């Protein structure tokens, strides 16, 4: 006689224990939301603000500009905004690496202009294939970063002085490379020009990116939770991971819907996000990334831990130089030319401000590549809103300066709060 359901054994897992797997219920999701909010509250009370201030600030900025001009959140303006953030945002990603070890790179603007000039002269004037000219331009940025890193790590010259000298020297070299004409126009249909002019017009591209991003985030978070649980350290429960993934999915699919209402997913934005994800993985999931963070906590402690301090410091400046070169190529792509003004103006200040406003600490040891994305979104949102309202650039600079000062003050107060609790 067959037994009833209550007499049957529960399914067992590979380890012989009873399986507790079941479908998520509404009660689980509600508990996940409560856990998520409690975790945020605990982090805020402990001084770990993370991205909360910049996200709230971005929301306030968007609400204000939308109230003043209904075209601010239009698909066209947001699509243009997604392109405007790429060039400077890529440079800011490199700045994040330098700030993580409590150093500073003031040469990134000049390096970006030099890379654009090298590419333009090689490809347009000398007829070199664009892919090869692009590779040489990027390698130029990496080599310049290595030179800066050598003087900082080996010779012991402060990074402020080295990169300030680089700002002047590489800008002069850019002017020399461009020659008397001063401006080189790029091929409108060429490889570099296509970087910011090509769109994936099919709706599946943007929605597919949103879906893939949400899935990857869930799998990475789940794997991290399992790893931490195996190591016996606190980890996020599955329901909290589900809530975080749901929030990300809502934002990602909303952004995809807006982009599809205009011309689709910009290639430049896709490349920007892929670079951020890859470098974030390198920082958070590799031994090299742990060495960078350790160095930000203190050079002497890192040296005693067996870290090759000289190499890590040089490599960080190489990353900064490489990202400056890539960003310079995207900026040149946006205007399809390289000129004597490339890399000048407020580019350097915006790149540094983006990294700091996004949450990267000037004191080292705290920050993520996503900080560059959030920070440049704030800066370019202010610029876009001001342009729509017809307000002069001087006001934009004053507002951006105020936001930067607020971010630095908040960083200092956070560090003081953590030190008082013995967490810094």
Automatic annotation (TrEMBL):
Superkingdom, natural source: Bacteria
Pfam families attached to this UniProt entry: BPD_transp_2
Bilayer disposition of the protein: Multi-pass membrane protein
Transmembrane segments: 49-69, 81-101, 108-125, 131-153, 160-179, 199-220, 241-259, 265-283, 310-335, 347-365, 372-391, 397-414
Keywords: Cell inner membrane, Cell membrane, Membrane, Sugar transport, Transmembrane, Transmembrane helix, Transport
Annotated compartments: Cell membrane
Name this protein carries in UniProt: Xylose transport system permease protein XylH
Taxonomic lineage of the native organism: Bacteria, Bacillati, Actinomycetota, Actinomycetes, Kitasatosporales
